[in-house]
Amino acid sequence: MWIAIALISGLASLVGYGLFQDSAPDTVAFVLAFAAGAILTMLVQTMMPEAYEHGGKWVGVVTTLGFAVAFTIHTLD
After folding, report:
1. What is the model's pTM?
2. Which of the residue ranges 8-12, 13-17, 47-51 would you say has the lowest mean pLDDT?
3. CA distance 68 to 62
């Protein structure tokens, strides 16, 4: 199952790269924002409850700081 997921993800990435290579920046930004929202949804549904159980109330703050650091690094690049 995991091999199939990896293959399908790789194929979807290749197709997406081909389809959006010459797209307008606004279109690419929309697709990236949609993908980021999907990743956040997955994190909140599957990982955050367990992280909160083991890490307490600071898990949300540390997660937010992690995203802020990632955004800052991306902006500086």
Report:
1. 0.56
2. 47-51
3. 10
